[in-house]
């Protein structure tokens, strides 16, 4: 048993009257002790559930990020004049609504806006459809690439994916705890704003509960990240909803959040989310979008693509962003980007196998 970790557990688990918040340094130390196995399983499980009940502070999340930044992987800066967008999407995936973020990433990369994503396999508590599985169905197998090969693909295509089971194996032990607890611990909140990229970034995490927005703002401020977009998206992702007004928080030069409300009906987008069927059905629908076919998922792709083209400064407003997204899908250049990414990742994977990486 670790006596030091026991002290951290006593602070977060002592209840409303005698409990205390951890300092940023203490949260970083506790996180490293969990990842490095220096605390016992009983201590770790108790800490995770106690911290969830207490709710994390911005200082605590900042300390967790410090530990992830110290122990975890980083894609290195690439040649680009634009801040790299890092999408923060829940690791436990999607179960109800069709995701569109891989298509959004392809669209943005097509026009020179680099994107980094991160995640793993089907994980607790939802065991939903993860990004890595979608990419694999589209012909891009990030799971077989070393971090070095991923860096090469990222530099050439503008899309990178940090596959945590391989690139950050220290966090693999956390998933059994999450499964046994049946609840997401504060680590799940922190992962949404973790940045596995070492250069200039634009952080775009999704969230569900309104208090999370202010928590993200404060935590990102402690890490001196000034460019961010906070999206109350589908199932906690950064995919904009179509069945309701999208609520979005934008960073500003003053440090305050600028509130943005986007109603699909104002842009002639049908107010209906696309339900998630089988993975095969989703992949077929995504291929139809890339072929320029008018489908329900195309409306989702245009709604999201238009916003992110505007937010990244490529289009001057939402309407022109939607029009540009439609033109890019119809022209086939987004499909060409997927072909380039698929071919390059396949070659990199083969080289990794040959070189024993």
Automatic annotation (TrEMBL):
Alphabetized InterPro entries for the sequence: Anthranilate_Pribosyl_Tfrase, Glycosyl_Trfase_fam3, Glycosyl_Trfase_fam3_N_dom, Glycosyl_Trfase_fam3_N_dom_sf, Nuc_phospho_transferase
GO MF entries: glycosyltransferase activity
Residue ranges annotated for the Glycosyl transferase family domain, each copy included: 97-332
Alphabetically ordered keywords of this record: Amino-acid biosynthesis, Aromatic amino acid biosynthesis, Glycosyltransferase, Transferase
Keyword Glycosyltransferase among record annotations: yes
Coiled-coil residue windows: none
Keyword Amino-acid biosynthesis in annotation: yes
Glycosyl transferase family 3 N-terminal domain location: 7-70
PANTHER family hit by this protein: ANTHRANILATE PHOSPHORIBOSYLTRANSFERASE, SLL1634 PROTEIN
Descriptive protein name: Anthranilate phosphoribosyltransferase family protein
């Amino acid at each position: 048993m670790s006596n030091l970790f026991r002290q951290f557990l006593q602070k977060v688990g002592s209840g409303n009257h005698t409990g205390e918040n951890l300092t940023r340094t203490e949260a970083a130390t506790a996180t490293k002790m969990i990842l490095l196995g220096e605390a016992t399983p009983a201590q770790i499980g108790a800490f995770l559930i106690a911290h969830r009940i207490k709710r994390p502070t911005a200082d605590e999340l900042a300390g967790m990020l410090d530990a992830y930044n110290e122990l975890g992987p980083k894609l290195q800066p690439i040649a680009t004049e634009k801040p790299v967008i890092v999408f923060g999407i829940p690791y436990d995936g999607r179960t109800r609504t069709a995701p569109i973020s891989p298509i959004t990433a392809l669209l943005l990369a097509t026009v020179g806006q680099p994107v980094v994503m991160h995640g793993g396999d089907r994980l607790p508590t939802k065991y939903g459809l993860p990004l890595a599985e979608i990419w694999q169905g589209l012909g891009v197998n990030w799971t077989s690439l070393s971090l070095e090969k991923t860096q090469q693909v990222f530099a050439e295509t503008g899309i990178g994916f940090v596959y945590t089971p391989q690139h950050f194996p220290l966090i693999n032990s956390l998933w059994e705890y999450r499964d046994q607890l049946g609840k997401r611990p504060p680590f799940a909140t922190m992962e949404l704003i973790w940045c596995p990229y070492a250069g200039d970034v634009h952080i775009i995490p999704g969230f569900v509960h309104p208090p999370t927005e202010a928590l993200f703002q404060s935590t990102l401020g402690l890490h001196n990240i000034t460019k961010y977009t906070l999206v109350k998206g589908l199932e906690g992702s950064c995919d904009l909803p179509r069945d309701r007004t999208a609520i979005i928080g934008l960073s500003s030069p003053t440090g305050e959040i600028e509130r943005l409300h986007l109603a699909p009906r104002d842009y002639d987008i049908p107010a209906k989310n696309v339900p998630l069927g089988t993975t095969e059905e989703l992949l077929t629908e995504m291929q139809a979008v890339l072929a320029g076919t008018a489908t329900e998922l195309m409306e989702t792709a245009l709604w999201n693509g238009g916003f992110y083209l505007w937010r990244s400064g490529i289009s001057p407003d939402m309407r022109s962003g939607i029009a540009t997204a439609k033109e890019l899908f119809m022209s086939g250049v987004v499909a060409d980007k997927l072909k380039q990414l698929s071919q390059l990742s396949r070659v990199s994977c083969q080289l990794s196998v040959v070189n024993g990486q």
